[in-house]
Amino acid sequence: MGIVHISAPAGILSQDFEAGASPAAVGTNPVPRLATREVFGSPSGDVSTGTWEASPGSFRRAIMDSEFSHFLAGRATFVTDEGQSFEFRAGDAAYFPPFSRGVWTIHETLRKTYCVWK
To answer: What is the pLDDT of residues 28-48, one digit of tens each?
Structure first.
């Protein structure tokens, strides 16, 4: 595998993303629109990287693999099932260990680059 370059991810038009599955509703918040623009997926399915976007709303985190994310735009809160709360804004980065469970609340359309691996 060579270098994977995600060029200008903050400037990707929302309509250029591939719509993801609709998550289940959480509480009374709206269900967000989730979308991804993958730039690399390993043939084995063990690694994936690209850009992801979510509109305002709440949903349970569905990725149970390791993930590193760099947030490009928006604002969101992630509350783990253990009650730990994290506020993410443009410029922040985070590592989610495998089996990180909790609820995302997207306050302003959130965009991030990500790398997910098993």
So the answer is: 999 999 999 999 999 999 999
User: What residues contact residue 72 under an 8 Å CB cut-off, 6+ apart?
Assistant: 9, 10, 51, 90, 111, 112, 113
Contact 53, 110 (CB under 8 A): yes
CB-neighbour burial class of residue 52 (10 A; exposed 0-12, middle 13-18, buried 19+): buried
Residue 7: C-alpha distances to residues 11, 14, 35 (Å): 9, 15, 17
Kindly list the structural domains of the chain, giving each domain's residue range(s) and its CATH number in brackets, ordered by start. 24-90+99-108 (2.60.120.10)
pLDDT band at 2 (very low <50, low <70, confident <90, very high): confident
Q: Tell the residue number behind the tokens 């730990």, with chain if given.
A: 84
- Phi, psi angle pair for 11, to nearest 5°: -95, 0
Beta bridge partners of residue 37, listed in sequence order = 51
Q: How far apart (Å, rounded) are the C-alpha atoms in residues 52 and 21?
A: 13
